Amino acid sequence: MNNPHPVPYSIKRHGTNFHDCAAEPIRAPGCIQPHGALLVLRSVDLTILQVSENSPQLFGLTAEQLLGKNIDVLLDGASIPNVSPANAKMRLAVETWKRTPYPLTRLIGPALTRYLP
Fold this sequence. Notes:
Largest sheet: 2 strands, antiparallel
Strand content: 5-15%
Number of domains: 2
Order of helices and strands: HEEHHHH
Number of strands: 2
Strand order of the largest sheet: 1-2
Number of helices: 5
Structural class: mainly alpha
Distance between the termini: 41 Å
CATH class of the largest domain: Alpha Beta
């Protein structure tokens, strides 16, 4: 498929064309909605690898100030669960969940998610 935008699409650079909305692939959107931001984190240590260009408006910090930093510069570190694959408790929980019969996961899954941090 030929990419009509050789550089990353930005509503600031390209404007809004509602005729193109139907052709926009949902799995690969062309831009970030103005009320949100995109952060790409390294899973093992939550280091910020990529940041959307609207970070100053939402976080008060530029992409340059965020790149390479840990996510705790934006959030209270105590509120971030340790979901790293290096966390032995997390690995055990995931492996246990994988072995749990599907009907049981459907029954207890919604109840468990209510208590996630």
